[in-house]
Protein backbone atom coordinates (compact mmCIF):
# COMPACT_ATOMS: atom_id res chain seq x y z
CA UNK A 1 0.00 0.00 0.00
CA UNK A 2 1.27 3.37 -0.99
CA UNK A 3 1.79 5.94 1.74
CA UNK A 4 -0.67 8.78 1.85
CA UNK A 5 0.61 12.08 0.62
CA UNK A 6 -0.73 14.23 3.39
CA UNK A 7 2.61 14.46 5.09
CA UNK A 8 4.39 15.17 1.82
CA UNK A 9 2.39 18.32 1.40
CA UNK A 10 2.69 19.26 5.02
CA UNK A 11 -0.88 18.77 6.16
CA UNK A 12 -1.12 17.07 9.50
CA UNK A 13 -3.67 16.39 12.13
CA UNK A 14 -4.51 19.68 13.78
CA UNK A 15 -3.80 20.26 17.43
CA UNK A 16 -6.97 19.70 19.39
CA UNK A 17 -8.76 22.85 18.41
CA UNK A 18 -11.97 24.19 19.86
CA UNK A 19 -13.85 22.67 16.96
CA UNK A 20 -12.27 19.23 17.43
CA UNK A 21 -13.10 19.35 21.11
CA UNK A 22 -16.70 20.12 20.26
CA UNK A 23 -16.71 16.81 18.41
CA UNK A 24 -17.09 18.11 14.88
CA UNK A 25 -13.52 17.59 13.66
CA UNK A 26 -13.47 14.52 11.43
CA UNK A 27 -11.20 12.37 9.32
CA UNK A 28 -11.35 13.49 5.72
CA UNK A 29 -9.92 11.83 2.62
CA UNK A 30 -9.39 14.35 -0.17
CA UNK A 31 -9.16 12.69 -3.57
CA UNK A 32 -7.55 15.18 -5.88
CA UNK A 33 -4.60 14.91 -8.26
CA UNK A 34 -4.00 18.54 -9.08
CA UNK A 35 -1.38 20.04 -6.76
CA UNK A 36 -2.69 23.55 -7.45
CA UNK A 37 -6.03 22.38 -6.09
CA UNK A 38 -5.19 20.16 -3.11
CA UNK A 39 -2.34 22.38 -1.93
CA UNK A 40 -4.97 25.04 -1.35
CA UNK A 41 -7.90 22.91 -0.14
CA UNK A 42 -6.10 20.58 2.26
CA UNK A 43 -4.70 23.29 4.57
CA UNK A 44 -8.11 24.95 4.76
CA UNK A 45 -9.72 21.69 5.85
CA UNK A 46 -6.82 20.85 8.17
CA UNK A 47 -7.77 23.79 10.37
CA UNK A 48 -10.73 21.75 11.61
CA UNK A 49 -10.16 18.17 10.51
CA UNK A 50 -7.56 15.50 9.98
CA UNK A 51 -6.92 15.45 6.24
CA UNK A 52 -5.30 12.85 4.01
CA UNK A 53 -4.76 13.56 0.34
CA UNK A 54 -4.76 10.77 -2.22
CA UNK A 55 -4.28 11.58 -5.91
CA UNK A 56 -4.73 8.01 -7.09
CA UNK A 57 -8.44 7.06 -7.24
CA UNK A 58 -7.84 3.31 -6.94
CA UNK A 59 -5.70 3.84 -3.86
CA UNK A 60 -8.31 6.27 -2.57
CA UNK A 61 -10.99 3.62 -2.66
CA UNK A 62 -8.74 1.26 -0.79
CA UNK A 63 -7.98 3.87 1.89
CA UNK A 64 -11.64 4.80 2.15
CA UNK A 65 -12.52 1.17 2.85
CA UNK A 66 -9.78 0.74 5.45
CA UNK A 67 -9.29 4.17 6.93
CA UNK A 68 -12.33 4.93 9.06
CA UNK A 69 -13.03 8.20 7.29
CA UNK A 70 -15.93 10.51 8.09
CA UNK A 71 -15.96 12.20 4.71
CA UNK A 72 -14.65 11.74 1.18
CA UNK A 73 -14.07 14.90 -0.80
CA UNK A 74 -13.72 13.96 -4.46
CA UNK A 75 -12.59 16.18 -7.29
CA UNK A 76 -14.71 15.36 -10.32
CA UNK A 77 -12.04 16.68 -12.68
CA UNK A 78 -9.24 14.21 -12.06
CA UNK A 79 -6.61 14.03 -14.81
CA UNK A 80 -6.68 10.33 -15.62
CA UNK A 81 -9.80 9.03 -13.96
CA UNK A 82 -13.47 9.78 -13.81
CA UNK A 83 -14.21 11.12 -10.33
CA UNK A 84 -17.84 10.13 -10.77
CA UNK A 85 -16.81 6.55 -11.32
CA UNK A 86 -14.96 6.68 -8.03
CA UNK A 87 -18.07 8.02 -6.28
CA UNK A 88 -20.13 5.26 -7.84
CA UNK A 89 -17.65 2.59 -6.73
CA UNK A 90 -17.61 4.03 -3.20
CA UNK A 91 -21.39 3.76 -3.12
CA UNK A 92 -21.38 0.13 -4.24
CA UNK A 93 -18.78 -1.15 -1.77
CA UNK A 94 -20.10 -2.35 1.57
CA UNK A 95 -17.31 -0.71 3.54
CA UNK A 96 -17.58 2.72 1.94
CA UNK A 97 -21.30 2.91 1.25
CA UNK A 98 -22.06 4.92 4.36
CA UNK A 99 -19.25 7.47 4.05
CA UNK A 100 -20.59 10.87 2.94
CA UNK A 101 -19.17 12.23 -0.30
CA UNK A 102 -18.64 15.90 -1.08
CA UNK A 103 -17.91 16.42 -4.78
CA UNK A 104 -15.96 19.31 -6.22
CA UNK A 105 -16.86 20.14 -9.79
CA UNK A 106 -15.75 22.71 -12.33
CA UNK A 107 -18.43 25.27 -12.84
CA UNK A 108 -19.20 24.12 -16.38
CA UNK A 109 -19.88 20.57 -15.24
CA UNK A 110 -23.54 20.83 -14.39
CA UNK A 111 -24.68 17.63 -16.09
CA UNK A 112 -22.01 15.64 -14.32
CA UNK A 113 -23.00 17.19 -10.99
CA UNK A 114 -26.56 16.03 -11.47
CA UNK A 115 -25.28 12.59 -12.35
CA UNK A 116 -23.22 12.65 -9.15
CA UNK A 117 -26.26 13.47 -7.03
CA UNK A 118 -28.08 10.56 -8.66
CA UNK A 119 -25.20 8.23 -7.80
CA UNK A 120 -25.41 9.25 -4.17
CA UNK A 121 -23.01 12.14 -3.74
CA UNK A 122 -24.25 13.96 -0.64
CA UNK A 123 -23.26 17.51 -1.48
CA UNK A 124 -21.08 19.47 -3.90
CA UNK A 125 -19.01 22.58 -4.40
CA UNK A 126 -18.07 24.31 -7.61
CA UNK A 127 -14.73 25.88 -8.42
CA UNK A 128 -13.37 28.28 -7.48
CA UNK A 129 -13.98 26.84 -4.04
CA UNK A 130 -14.90 29.37 -1.40
CA UNK A 131 -13.01 28.71 1.83
CA UNK A 132 -15.93 29.23 4.21
CA UNK A 133 -18.32 27.29 2.04
CA UNK A 134 -15.91 24.36 1.92
CA UNK A 135 -15.58 24.38 5.70
CA UNK A 136 -19.31 24.70 6.27
CA UNK A 137 -20.24 21.87 3.92
CA UNK A 138 -17.49 19.58 5.26
CA UNK A 139 -18.56 20.32 8.83
CA UNK A 140 -22.20 19.50 8.06
CA UNK A 141 -21.31 16.16 6.47
CA UNK A 142 -18.97 15.17 9.29
CA UNK A 143 -21.58 16.08 11.88
CA UNK A 144 -24.24 14.11 10.06
CA UNK A 145 -21.92 11.14 9.82
CA UNK A 146 -21.23 11.29 13.56
CA UNK A 147 -24.92 11.48 14.28
CA UNK A 148 -25.88 8.51 12.10
CA UNK A 149 -23.00 6.49 13.61
CA UNK A 150 -24.37 7.33 17.02
CA UNK A 151 -27.89 6.30 16.03
CA UNK A 152 -26.66 3.04 14.53
CA UNK A 153 -24.69 2.21 17.69
CA UNK A 154 -27.76 2.89 19.78
CA UNK A 155 -29.92 0.63 17.64
CA UNK A 156 -27.31 -2.12 17.78
CA UNK A 157 -27.01 -1.80 21.54
CA UNK A 158 -30.76 -1.99 22.05
CA UNK A 159 -30.99 -5.08 19.87
CA UNK A 160 -28.15 -6.67 21.85
CA UNK A 161 -29.81 -5.77 25.14
CA UNK A 162 -33.18 -7.12 24.00
CA UNK A 163 -31.82 -10.60 23.23
CA UNK A 164 -29.13 -10.94 25.92
CA UNK A 165 -29.40 -11.92 29.56
CA UNK A 166 -27.79 -9.08 31.48
CA UNK A 167 -26.32 -11.21 34.25
CA UNK A 168 -24.68 -14.02 32.29
CA UNK A 169 -24.32 -12.61 28.77
CA UNK A 170 -26.06 -15.69 27.38
CA UNK A 171 -29.12 -15.30 25.18
CA UNK A 172 -32.31 -14.66 27.06
CA UNK A 173 -35.52 -16.61 27.00
CA UNK A 174 -37.16 -14.31 24.47
CA UNK A 175 -34.37 -14.90 21.96
CA UNK A 176 -34.47 -18.65 22.55
CA UNK A 177 -38.22 -18.78 22.04
CA UNK A 178 -38.07 -16.78 18.85
CA UNK A 179 -35.45 -19.19 17.41
CA UNK A 180 -36.65 -22.55 18.68
CA UNK A 181 -39.33 -23.04 16.07
CA UNK A 182 -36.91 -22.19 13.25
CA UNK A 183 -34.31 -24.64 14.56
CA UNK A 184 -36.95 -27.36 14.76
CA UNK A 185 -38.17 -26.63 11.23
CA UNK A 186 -34.61 -26.73 9.88
CA UNK A 187 -34.01 -30.07 11.59
CA UNK A 188 -37.22 -31.54 10.13
CA UNK A 189 -36.47 -30.15 6.68
CA UNK A 190 -32.99 -31.66 6.58
CA UNK A 191 -34.01 -34.85 8.40
CA UNK A 192 -31.51 -34.12 11.16
CA UNK A 193 -31.98 -34.83 14.85
CA UNK A 194 -32.32 -32.04 17.40
CA UNK A 195 -31.66 -32.29 21.13
CA UNK A 196 -32.74 -29.97 23.90
CA UNK A 197 -31.73 -29.92 27.54
CA UNK A 198 -32.96 -27.95 30.54
CA UNK A 199 -30.36 -27.49 33.27
CA UNK A 200 -31.28 -26.44 36.77
CA UNK A 201 -28.89 -25.75 39.63
CA UNK A 202 -29.62 -27.96 42.65
CA UNK A 203 -30.58 -26.26 45.90
CA UNK A 204 -29.63 -22.90 44.51
CA UNK A 205 -31.73 -21.24 47.17
CA UNK A 206 -29.33 -22.59 49.82
CA UNK A 207 -26.37 -21.13 47.91
CA UNK A 208 -28.06 -17.73 48.16
CA UNK A 209 -28.91 -18.34 51.79
CA UNK A 210 -25.43 -19.52 52.77
CA UNK A 211 -23.22 -17.17 50.76
CA UNK A 212 -25.45 -14.23 49.89
CA UNK A 213 -27.24 -13.16 46.74
CA UNK A 214 -24.11 -11.64 45.14
CA UNK A 215 -22.26 -14.93 45.40
CA UNK A 216 -25.36 -16.58 43.96
CA UNK A 217 -25.05 -14.23 40.99
CA UNK A 218 -21.36 -15.14 40.64
CA UNK A 219 -22.30 -18.82 40.59
CA UNK A 220 -24.78 -18.13 37.78
CA UNK A 221 -22.10 -16.27 35.79
CA UNK A 222 -19.53 -19.00 36.32
CA UNK A 223 -22.08 -21.62 35.33
CA UNK A 224 -22.81 -19.71 32.13
CA UNK A 225 -19.08 -19.57 31.38
CA UNK A 226 -18.79 -23.32 31.81
CA UNK A 227 -21.81 -23.88 29.56
CA UNK A 228 -20.23 -21.68 26.89
CA UNK A 229 -17.02 -23.71 27.04
CA UNK A 230 -18.79 -27.01 26.66
CA UNK A 231 -21.02 -26.28 23.65
CA UNK A 232 -20.35 -25.97 19.92
CA UNK A 233 -20.81 -22.88 17.80
CA UNK A 234 -24.09 -24.15 16.36
CA UNK A 235 -25.58 -24.88 19.78
CA UNK A 236 -27.84 -22.29 21.32
CA UNK A 237 -27.60 -21.66 25.07
CA UNK A 238 -29.84 -19.35 27.03
CA UNK A 239 -30.71 -18.43 30.57
CA UNK A 240 -34.30 -19.52 30.66
CA UNK A 241 -35.03 -17.92 34.00
CA UNK A 242 -33.61 -17.76 37.54
CA UNK A 243 -31.13 -20.63 37.83
CA UNK A 244 -32.52 -22.55 34.90
CA UNK A 245 -30.79 -22.76 31.53
CA UNK A 246 -31.66 -24.31 28.15
CA UNK A 247 -29.26 -25.65 25.53
CA UNK A 248 -30.50 -26.55 22.05
CA UNK A 249 -28.22 -28.79 20.02
CA UNK A 250 -28.92 -29.10 16.29
CA UNK A 251 -27.77 -32.24 14.49
CA UNK A 252 -27.47 -34.09 17.78
CA UNK A 253 -29.22 -37.36 18.60
CA UNK A 254 -30.15 -38.66 22.04
CA UNK A 255 -27.00 -40.77 22.36
CA UNK A 256 -24.62 -37.85 21.78
CA UNK A 257 -26.77 -35.42 23.77
CA UNK A 258 -26.70 -37.77 26.78
CA UNK A 259 -22.92 -37.86 26.63
CA UNK A 260 -22.69 -34.06 26.40
CA UNK A 261 -25.13 -33.63 29.30
CA UNK A 262 -23.39 -36.21 31.46
CA UNK A 263 -19.97 -34.68 30.78
CA UNK A 264 -21.28 -31.23 31.75
CA UNK A 265 -22.97 -32.55 34.88
CA UNK A 266 -19.79 -34.32 35.97
CA UNK A 267 -17.57 -31.29 35.28
CA UNK A 268 -19.81 -29.06 37.40
CA UNK A 269 -19.96 -31.50 40.32
CA UNK A 270 -16.26 -32.32 40.06
CA UNK A 271 -14.85 -28.80 40.16
CA UNK A 272 -16.16 -26.45 42.90
CA UNK A 273 -16.90 -22.90 41.77
CA UNK A 274 -14.23 -20.39 42.65
CA UNK A 275 -16.14 -17.28 43.81
CA UNK A 276 -15.17 -13.95 45.38
CA UNK A 277 -11.78 -13.83 43.64
CA UNK A 278 -11.06 -17.34 44.82
CA UNK A 279 -11.96 -16.67 48.45
CA UNK A 280 -14.83 -19.10 48.38
CA UNK A 281 -15.04 -22.54 46.85
CA UNK A 282 -18.67 -23.46 46.40
CA UNK A 283 -19.77 -26.97 45.53
CA UNK A 284 -22.47 -26.92 42.89
CA UNK A 285 -24.45 -29.69 41.30
CA UNK A 286 -26.99 -29.55 38.51
CA UNK A 287 -29.87 -31.65 37.28
CA UNK A 288 -30.55 -31.99 33.57
CA UNK A 289 -33.69 -32.98 31.70
CA UNK A 290 -33.11 -34.12 28.13
CA UNK A 291 -35.39 -34.59 25.13
CA UNK A 292 -35.08 -34.85 21.35
CA UNK A 293 -37.33 -34.02 18.44
CA UNK A 294 -39.25 -37.28 17.94
CA UNK A 295 -41.00 -36.79 14.64
CA UNK A 296 -41.11 -34.28 11.81
CA UNK A 297 -43.46 -31.39 12.42
CA UNK A 298 -43.64 -31.99 16.14
CA UNK A 299 -44.17 -28.68 17.97
CA UNK A 300 -40.97 -27.69 19.74
CA UNK A 301 -43.08 -26.84 22.78
CA UNK A 302 -43.72 -30.58 23.16
CA UNK A 303 -39.97 -31.29 23.21
CA UNK A 304 -39.48 -28.55 25.79
CA UNK A 305 -42.28 -30.06 27.85
CA UNK A 306 -40.67 -33.54 27.77
CA UNK A 307 -37.32 -32.08 28.84
CA UNK A 308 -39.08 -30.33 31.71
CA UNK A 309 -40.79 -33.55 32.82
CA UNK A 310 -37.39 -35.30 32.67
CA UNK A 311 -35.86 -32.52 34.77
CA UNK A 312 -38.60 -32.94 37.33
CA UNK A 313 -37.77 -36.66 37.54
CA UNK A 314 -34.06 -35.87 37.90
CA UNK A 315 -34.89 -33.65 40.87
CA UNK A 316 -37.29 -36.19 42.32
CA UNK A 317 -34.78 -39.03 41.95
CA UNK A 318 -32.18 -37.20 44.03
CA UNK A 319 -30.69 -34.41 41.84
CA UNK A 320 -27.14 -34.23 40.35
CA UNK A 321 -28.21 -36.44 37.45
CA UNK A 322 -29.28 -36.50 33.82
CA UNK A 323 -32.68 -37.91 32.92
CA UNK A 324 -33.98 -38.38 29.39
P1 LIG B 1 -33.98 -27.29 43.30
O1 LIG B 1 -32.85 -28.21 43.58
O2 LIG B 1 -35.29 -27.94 43.44
O3 LIG B 1 -33.85 -26.66 41.97
O4 LIG B 1 -33.91 -26.16 44.41
P2 LIG B 1 -33.59 -24.65 44.21
O5 LIG B 1 -33.34 -24.07 45.53
O6 LIG B 1 -32.49 -24.51 43.24
O7 LIG B 1 -34.90 -24.13 43.52
P3 LIG B 1 -35.90 -22.99 43.90
O8 LIG B 1 -36.71 -22.83 42.63
O9 LIG B 1 -36.60 -23.28 45.17
O10 LIG B 1 -35.00 -21.70 44.12
C1 LIG B 1 -34.40 -21.02 43.09
C2 LIG B 1 -33.79 -19.81 43.68
O11 LIG B 1 -33.06 -19.06 42.70
C3 LIG B 1 -34.81 -18.85 44.24
C4 LIG B 1 -34.41 -17.50 43.75
O12 LIG B 1 -34.30 -16.57 44.79
C5 LIG B 1 -33.04 -17.73 43.15
N1 LIG B 1 -32.76 -16.86 42.05
C6 LIG B 1 -33.48 -16.65 40.94
N2 LIG B 1 -32.89 -15.76 40.11
C7 LIG B 1 -31.74 -15.37 40.75
C8 LIG B 1 -30.69 -14.47 40.42
O13 LIG B 1 -30.68 -13.82 39.37
N3 LIG B 1 -29.67 -14.33 41.32
C9 LIG B 1 -29.64 -15.05 42.47
N4 LIG B 1 -28.59 -14.87 43.27
N5 LIG B 1 -30.63 -15.89 42.82
C10 LIG B 1 -31.66 -16.06 41.96
MG1 LIG C 1 -36.82 -25.25 41.53
MG1 LIG D 1 -32.75 -25.17 41.23
MG1 LIG E 1 -35.35 -23.75 39.11
TrEMBL record:
UniProt KW Phosphoprotein keyword: yes
Q: Is Cell division among this UniProt entry's keywords?
A: no
Q: Which organism is it from?
A: Tardiphaga alba
* Every Response regulatory domain range: 27-142
Query: Which part of the entire protein is covered?
Result: 131 to 454 of 457
Q: What is its EC number?
A: 2.7.7.65
Which positions fall inside the GGDEF domain? 192-324
* Superkingdom in the source lineage: Bacteria
Name the chain's protein: diguanylate cyclase
Keywords carried by this UniProt record: Phosphoprotein
Amino acid sequence: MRALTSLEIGVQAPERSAVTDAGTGGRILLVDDRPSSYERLAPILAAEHTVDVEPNPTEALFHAAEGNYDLLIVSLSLENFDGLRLCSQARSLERTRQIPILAIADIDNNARLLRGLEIGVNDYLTRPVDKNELLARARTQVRRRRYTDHLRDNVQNSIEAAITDGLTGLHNRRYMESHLETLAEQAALRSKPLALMILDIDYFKSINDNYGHDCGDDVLREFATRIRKSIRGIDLACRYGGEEFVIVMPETDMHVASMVAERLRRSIAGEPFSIDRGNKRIEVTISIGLATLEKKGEPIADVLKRADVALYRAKHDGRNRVVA
